[in-house]
């Protein structure tokens, strides 16, 4: 066990032998990695490789079986409440309230994450302006196209300026053009110092990350910058890298 | 922009503000969904009217045929009495006993009255006369009801004869229905419908709305957020609590002013009792939502697990006294049963609060147990 003082200042996520078992099945097997401040960290793996389980542990949605991890300097086993206040989360299920208006959704989530009451209205207008959604302020979310909803969901997830935002396959089901726009938002967030922890199975997206880890059967098979990984494996793109590594998988889909 | 210092620890006041924001959100969900509105506001009224009028066990204007070979003072008087009554309409007189079979087969009548020959003479001299009431047994409830009505009418006639001294002293069994002398079905159904509607709205709607958040993935977001799970749950219960109170008042207004069922006892205690029952139902809804993950499952469990037992075992439709011991024991754990008994005592019989202490105590303990179990069951971490 390492003490808090040993966590490097500039690391916002530190995992040491993080493990999660469901009965006899080890979903996440001794995961160790670090993520630096402002980094865009891609968390890749095939379905069933354990990405979501690992991410849920880091968010406090699931308790680890063994190992340790610190998020924003807080222990995930004991300081969940503190962690919750400095993270944002966007799941693969698109999670805004469809029957609430755009501004009502923003207001609700801003409130839940403790954004001061007096700041909410102004920041809502700023956000809608940045996204070009001013005209949709009063629209019900269900009337928006999917790509817009996803951009909005991301913006809501970082509305309270968290230290880290966890994105679980945020771009599932949208076309490449919209995905590019979405990634522009991710870059903007990272420029403001927000660390982005993102799972995806689109390999073109992996190229946009500062560093990527590739999970196979519950453990990390490779972790480096996209360029280094391509060089090491003599692959022409990330898709190739991924397939070379994922071929080792013994586990079938869960 | 990058100032984390304003991310203060949530204060009590902050919690309250966002608790209210959450309650508002719940109301938006309800008011923007036509289906919810229909279930919450129209269905209770429909159910009350359906149970109160359409599914009435009262039988009115049943067609009656009479075979009367005697044609004397007594038989004419009895036929006259049957006829002036609301319950019966004289369809026609039969000419021979053979016709009895035919009128039933053709479905013309619900009951046939057959007098014996020399009816009045036998009654006066022998002190005994025979009268046969024939009803269609394929619908036992109706048959039972109308023959009971007819017997009562005939007994009344006998009583009258007794008073005039025309026939020797004779004891006729007297049937008197307490509290509901005319057997008004609404007296029985209003408490039952109240018990059912409140349960339906609180338990089903609450559990479905929590299950919806799980299905849509918003529950995950809420659990990742610093918001306390307890507030999430409470904010779900508050709107349904208010709507139940609205429904309670609607039902009471309809039953008093439209169906003519009075509130005989203390209005105050009726409300206290109902609030307690609403609380129990909400706790049941929370319990259901803690074990299911989909709206469909929540709906099924509420409907099959709550509605059916309430309708069948609470004494609303069938008296629990006649049930097998096992079913009686089962009916004891149904909150609606105790609520319905207590409502009947206060509202229909006009008894004092002293008479419902047992029911209040049982509902109170149920509330405590259910709230404890469901709060403990509500998973903060989704495994």
Question: What would your notes on this structure say?
Answer:
The complex is a heterodimer of chains A (254) and B (383). Chain A has helices at residues 51-59, 80-85, 102-112, 117-131, 146-157, 176-191, 203-206, 226-232, 238-246; strands at residues 11-22, 25-36, 40-45, 66-71, 74-75, 87-90, 164-168, 195-200, 211-216, 219-224. With 254 residues, chain A is an alpha/beta fold. In chain A, the strands form two sheets. A six-stranded mixed β-sheet of chain A has the order 6-7-8-3-9-10, sandwiched between helices. A four-stranded antiparallel β-sheet of chain A has the order 2-1-4-5. The longest helix of chain A has 16 residues, at 176-191. By secondary structure, chain B is of the alpha/beta class. Chain B contains 14 helices and four strands. In chain B, strands 2-1-3-4 form a four-stranded mixed β-sheet, sandwiched between helices. In chain B, helix 9 crosses helix 10. Mean pLDDT of chain B is 79; it is low at 1-8 and 169-181. The interface between A and B is large, with 41 and 33 residues.
C-alpha geometry of chain B: elongated
Distance between the termini of chain A: 31 Å
Please give the radius of gyration of chain A in angstroms: 18 Å
**Biggest interface and its residues per chain?**
A-B, 41 and 33 residues
Q: Supply the helix-strand structural class of chain B.
A: alpha/beta
- Portion of residues in beta strands of chain A equals 25-35%
Tell me the fraction of residues in β-strands of chain B, as a range. 5-15%
Largest sheet of chain B: 4 strands, mixed
Which class do the helix and strand fractions of chain A yield? alpha/beta
Supply Rg of chain B: 29 Å
- Uncertain runs of chain B are 1-8, 169-181
Number of domains of chain A: 1
Uncertain regions of chain A: pLDDT < 50 for 5+ in a row?
A: none
- The count of helical stretches of chain A stands at 9
Q: What is the CATH class designation of chain A?
A: Alpha Beta
Strand order of the largest sheet of chain A: 6-7-8-3-9-10
